[in-house]
């Protein structure tokens, strides 16, 4: 039996479409465009069996129609606002691919219907988190709320440290510039900045993100102090720190 493979396919200006493949079959996550996926499938001689959508933004869904046309038997999974979905899913749904169990989480914040896909593989836990968590950062808030996004990130933060995250964008270098402003004395951030010159920077482990991602470090005194200085108000709790950081990052 072949091993499970997870590969990033670059798309648009800074997107990654993740391809999970096993024994000649593939699942792809958030196809913002079809052409690079079709090229990869042909090159690797793979049959597209499933598409998993985290949220409705066009840079995550723009390739669905082209892929469905080429592989009409593939099953598309997404929340209720994904019109092209063959199966509408939400919190608690379970998928199966490559002999692995995939758990679906509702992770609102970036959008109110955002989903995460947690693949329980032989090598550990792999999380396709869309635009909720980025390396050293997090998504902007659109149709969700800042407190929802904070809660979704805290939920992810409770997973084992060796969990691997597969965000949908290569934003690491830019996010680290912000992280360095928040924590100028953080040696892990400086080391990550040097490493970010090589792409892809993903996937990333949760243990690594706990060291460098200010949005997962809201309980750190320096992070809270910087958030208070930038916002001009004393945060009452971790959620307040997060909201101040997110507002600051929006202006950064």
What does this structure look like?
The protein has helices spanning 35-44, 58-61, 64-70, 146-157, 172-182, 187-195, 206-212, 221-231, 238-251, and strands at 5-11, 15-22, 25-29, 47-52, 75-78, 87-88, 94-97, 100-106, 115-121, 124-130, 133-134, 137-138, 164-167, 204-205. With 252 residues, it is α/β, with parallel strands linked by helices. The chain has a single domain (5-251), classed as Metallo-beta-lactamase, Chain A, CATH 3.60.15. Strand 11 (133-134) and strand 12 form a beta hairpin. The longest helix has 14 residues, at 238-251.
Low-confidence stretches: none
Strand content: 25-35%
Treating each run of at least 4 consecutive H or I residues as one helix, how many helices?
9
The CATH H-level superfamily is Ribonuclease Z/Hydroxyacylglutathione hydrolase-like
> Which class do the helix and strand fractions yield?
alpha/beta
Shape: globular
GO biological process, one term: methylglyoxal catabolic process to D-lactate via S-lactoyl-glutathione
Pathway: Secondary metabolite metabolism; methylglyoxal degradation; (R)-lactate from methylglyoxal: step 2/2
GO molecular function, one term: hydroxyacylglutathione hydrolase activity
Keywords: Hydrolase, Metal-binding, Zinc
Topology, element by element:
Elements: E1 5-11, E2 15-22, E3 25-29, H1 35-44, E4 47-52, H2 58-61, H3 64-70, E5 75-78, E6 87-88, E7 94-97, E8 100-106, E9 115-121, E10 124-130, E11 133-134, E12 137-138, H4 146-157, E13 164-167, H5 172-182, H6 187-195, E14 204-205, H7 206-212, H8 221-231, H9 238-251
Parallel strand pairs: 3-4, 4-5, 5-6, 10-13
Antiparallel strand pairs: 1-2, 2-3, 7-8, 8-9, 9-10, 11-12, 13-14
Helix pairs in contact: 4-9, 5-6, 8-9
């Amino acid at each position: 039996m072949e091993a499970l493979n997870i590969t990033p396919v670059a798309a648009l200006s800074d997107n990654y479409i993740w391809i999970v493949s096993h024994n000649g079959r593939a699942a792809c996550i958030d196809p913002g465009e079809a052409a690079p996926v079709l090229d990869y499938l042909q090159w690797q001689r793979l049959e597209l069996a499933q598409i998993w959508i985290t949220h409705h933004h066009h840079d995550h869904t723009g390739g669905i129609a082209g892929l469905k046309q080429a592989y009409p038997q593939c099953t598309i999974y997404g929340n209720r606002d994904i019109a092209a979905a063959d199966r509408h899913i939400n919190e608690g749904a379970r998928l199966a691919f490559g002999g692995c169990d995939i758990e679906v989480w509702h992770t609102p914040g970036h959008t109110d219907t955002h989903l995460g896909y947690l693949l329980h593989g032989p090598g550990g836990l792999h999380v396709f988190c869309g635009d909720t968590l980025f390396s050293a950062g997090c998504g902007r808030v659109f149709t969700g709320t800042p407190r929802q996004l904070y809660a979704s990130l805290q939920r992810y933060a409770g997973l084992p440290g060796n969990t691997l995250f597969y965000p949908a964008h290569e934003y690491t270098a830019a996010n680290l510039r912000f992280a360095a402003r928040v924590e100028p004395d953080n040696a892990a951030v400086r080391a990550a900045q040097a490493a970010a010159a090589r792409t892809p920077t993903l996937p990333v482990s949760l243990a690594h993100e706990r060291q460098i991602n200010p949005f997962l470090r809201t309980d750190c005194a320096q992070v809270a102090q910087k958030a208070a200085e930038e916002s001009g108000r004393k945060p009452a709790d971790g959620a307040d720190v997060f909201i101040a950081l997110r507002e600051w990052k929006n202006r950064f």
